[in-house]
């Protein structure tokens, strides 16, 4: 029985899931916007890292801050120019808008990059410990996921902009009366979500093939992770990601890989009924 | 005062109030027009363009495959038209490929196939990539009695509905798996334990099931047999189980992104076997590019390889002539089986349409059913279910970053390599 290996597989996968979900969770929790662009942002980050590596030999880790900043800019503009126009409308309106924008971005990427799967073939190898194999690139991804989540947690808790974001989430009108530029804060929040997606994309370019075929899968995972972990708290994405990774790994081993995704979704449905706030989500954000 | 319900014409007759002379003139004019139409009919059809409908996935997840089909469709049409078209009953007809982007969306493929038949008057439909979407377009073709040619569908289930208007140029999956199993057992007699992991999707699932059946029939022990869901981003639990089962042969099916991920994770988790087969990954250049050294010695089955030396009818008399033409339009990239099969299907039409003697759907269907020819792509002969049953399928392996053909002997360019740990 490779129980140790199964647990490690689940934790490493879960950290990657957390990495892709944290930005999505922030935008959903703060802006009440289900950002359908999130999967495409991740893939765009992956493509930028891949082409920089292929064309100029730039290591993905060097590209990470550059891609993150670039995606922040894109996210800021998308929110400021488009989503802010309808941000107070019902959630279905913003969902439809981001869905339309996602179709545009997705097809632009497919046309210009093609859907051919590409990968940064760094192949950093792995380490074995007590009979458990751990690939270095996934461990690196796990570490980066934890760091990014930690930084975001700190920013939300201890920085001026973080407090502004929380204030706008709690009471938009009161925040505006206190002198907070609400639309600017919204754009920054969406920008941070895109920044996290771009960073996740760079990490994923080292682990998964980069292809537009994966945009929907990433978005679906982010959605499930947020529901399991809960909205309104940064650690929610981390907890949800790790929980989903472990569930998929364990159920894949015992029930077959065919059923691991189904069991993950089943857990999500159960949580929606039993505990709509998710495992560590805050009341009022669900 | 009485008023007519008819508008007065300038000649003073109410509309509909035809005097005898006018009626006679009307009849004569009608007869003249009908006669002219009867005379002009054959003349018009003599110059009629052969319209081939092609719903293509030019955007969306299957855009790569759609583009491959589009490339060879255009190449063939250009070449045929430059050669004067296709002769039917002594009359030369130009060909036209009518393309629509169905955006990788199955139901839309069906709608566009219908539009191609009903509005654009397509004489034939070239089915899009994949077994699932082929079923959809094939069903539409059958409804209107317009033949559908599937150049990228190999699952027997697609042809199980006995659609008399559906023909496929790829060979049944079972042919591939039996050939592969026999070949590997012959070259590696120690082979005894096989692990099969397949994607839960029409073609990959059918390949996985066919491999399990072929392995069991050949007396091999199937030590792992599972499917993974579409959308799986991690194969570690399957591969951990496979590692524990210690197979001699690992057989994984899926599409390129799945297989790149699986091969990568095999390396990460130290999963080894003397023989690793992935279908259809190595058939594509992007598999080798995406894996680098990890692609080495991975074997696969394919429906065609450009190193084969076939001769046949049509604008490409030899495999090499097609290969050279393709290199010119692809900036030096090699064609794969999608290019080969789809171009082969069109080259086949150069033999089928003259035999059909007309552009009527039923006549073309009958001529297709009787097809037994050689093309640059290989033999094409349709069985009872409409699948090509005349193919000798190559077994290939990645060796030194290029594809080597291991089987059949007639086109082999290398020997099977066993994977080193």
From TrEMBL, chain A:
Belongs to the binding-protein-dependent transport system permease family. LivHM subfamily. Keywords: Amino-acid transport, Cell membrane, Membrane, Transmembrane, Transmembrane helix, Transport. It is a multi-pass membrane protein. It is found in: Cell inner membrane. Pfam families: BPD_transp_2. GO terms for cellular component: plasma membrane. GO terms for molecular function: transmembrane transporter activity. The chain crosses the membrane at residues 6-30, 37-56, 62-83, 95-115, 135-155, 185-210, 222-247, 259-280. The lineage of its organism: Bacteria, Pseudomonadati, Pseudomonadota, Gammaproteobacteria, Chromatiales. One of its GO terms (biological process) is amino acid transport. This is Branched-chain amino acid transport system permease protein. InterPro entries: ABC_transp_permease, BCAA_transport_permease. The keyword Transmembrane helix applies. CDD domains: TM_PBP1_LivH_like. It comes from Natronocella acetinitrilica. The keyword Calcium does not apply.
TrEMBL record, chain B:
It comes from the Bacteria. CDD domains: PBP1_ABC_ligand_binding-like. Pfam families: Peripla_BP_6. InterPro entries: BCAA_transport, Leu-bd, Peripla_BP_I. Keywords: Membrane, Signal, Transmembrane, Transmembrane helix. Residues 49-399 form the Leucine-binding protein domain. The chain crosses the membrane at residues 25-44. Belongs to the leucine-binding protein family. This is Branched-chain amino acid transport system substrate-binding protein. It comes from Natronocella acetinitrilica. The lineage of its organism: Bacteria, Pseudomonadati, Pseudomonadota, Gammaproteobacteria, Chromatiales.
């Amino acid at each position: 029985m490779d129980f140790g290996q199964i647990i490690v597989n689940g934790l490493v996968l879960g950290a990657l899931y957390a990495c892709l979900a944290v930005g999505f969770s922030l935008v959903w929790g703060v802006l009440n916007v289900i950002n359908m662009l999130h999967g495409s942002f991740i893939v765009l980050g992956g493509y930028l890292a891949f082409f920089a590596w292929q064309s100029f030999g730039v290591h993905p880790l060097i590209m990470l801050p550059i891609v993150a900043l670039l995606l922040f800019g894109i996210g800021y503009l998308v929110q400021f120019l488009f989503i802010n126009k309808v941000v107070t409308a019902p959630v279905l309106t913003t969902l439809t808008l981001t869905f339309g924008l996602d179709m545009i971005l997705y097809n632009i990427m497919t046309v210009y990059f093609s859907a051919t799967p590409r990968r940064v073939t760094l192949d950093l190898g792995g380490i074995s410990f007590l009979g458990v194999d751990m690939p270095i690139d996934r461990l690196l991804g796990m570490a980066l996921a934890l760091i990014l989540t930690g930084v975001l947690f700190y920013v939300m808790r201890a920085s001026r902009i973080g407090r502004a974001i929380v204030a706008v989430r709690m009471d938009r009108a009161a925040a505006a009366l206190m002198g907070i530029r609400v639309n600017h804060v919204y754009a920054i929040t969406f920008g941070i979500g895109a920044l996290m997606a771009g960073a996740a994309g760079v990490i994923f370019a080292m682990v998964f093939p980069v292809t537009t075929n994966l945009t929907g899968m990433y978005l679906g995972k982010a959605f499930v992770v947020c529901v399991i972990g809960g909205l309104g708290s940064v650690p929610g994405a981390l907890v949800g990601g790790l929980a989903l990774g472990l569930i998929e790994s364990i159920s894949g081993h015992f029930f077959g890989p065919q059923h691991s995704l189904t069991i993950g979704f089943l857990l999500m449905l159960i949580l929606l009924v039993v505990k709509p706030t998710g495992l560590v989500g805050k009341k009022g954000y669900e | 005062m009485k008023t007519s319900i008819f508008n007065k014409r300038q000649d003073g007759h109410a509309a509909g109030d035809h005097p005898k002379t006018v009626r006679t003139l009307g009849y004569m004019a009608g007869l003249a027009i009908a006669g002219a139409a009867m005379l002009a009919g054959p003349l018009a059809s003599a110059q009629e363009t052969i319209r081939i409908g092609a719903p293509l996935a030019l955007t969306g997840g299957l855009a790569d495959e759609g583009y491959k089909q589009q490339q060879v469709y255009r190449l063939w049409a250009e070449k045929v038209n430059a050669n004067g078209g296709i002769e039917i009953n002594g009359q030369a007809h130009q060909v036209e490929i009518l393309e629509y982007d169905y955006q990788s969306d199955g139901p839309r493929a069906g709608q566009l196939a219908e539009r191609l038949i009903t509005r654009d008057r397509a004489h034939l439909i070239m089915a899009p990539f994949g077994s699932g979407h082929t079923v959809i377009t094939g069903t539409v073709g059958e409804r209107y009695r317009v033949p559908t040619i599937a150049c990228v569908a190999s699952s027997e289930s697609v042809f199980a509905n006995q659609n008399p208007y559906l023909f496929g140029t790829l060979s049944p999956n079972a042919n591939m798996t039996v050939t592969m199993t026999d070949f590997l057992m012959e070259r590696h007699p120690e082979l005894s334990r096989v692990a099969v992991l397949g994607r839960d999707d029409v073609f990959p699932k059918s390949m996985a099931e066919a491999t399990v059946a072929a392995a069991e029939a050949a007396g091999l022990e199937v030590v792992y047999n599972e499917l993974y869901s579409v959308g799986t981003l991690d194969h570690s639990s399957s591969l951990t189980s496979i590692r524990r089962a210690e197979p001699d042969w690992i057989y994984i099916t899926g599409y390129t992104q799945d297989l790149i991920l699986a091969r990568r994770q095999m390396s990460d988790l130290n999963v080894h076997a003397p023989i690793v087969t992935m279908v259809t990954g190595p058939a594509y250049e992007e598999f080798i590019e995406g894996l680098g050294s990890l692609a080495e010695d991975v074997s696969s089955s394919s429906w065609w390889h450009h190193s084969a030396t076939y001769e046949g009818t049509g604008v490409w008399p030899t495999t090499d002539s097609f290969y050279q033409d393709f290199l010119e339009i692809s900036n030096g990239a090699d064609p794969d089986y999608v290019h080969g099969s789809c171009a082969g299907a069109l080259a086949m039409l150069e033999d089928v349409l003259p035999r059909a003697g007309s552009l009527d759907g039923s006549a073309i269907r009958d001529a297709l059913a009787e097809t037994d020819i050689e093309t640059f792509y290989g033999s094409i002969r349709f069985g009872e279910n409409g699948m090509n049953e005349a193919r000798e399928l190559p077994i290939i392996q990645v060796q030194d970053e290029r594809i080597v053909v291991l089987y059949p002997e007639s086109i082999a360019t290398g020997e099977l390599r066993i994977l080193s740990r």
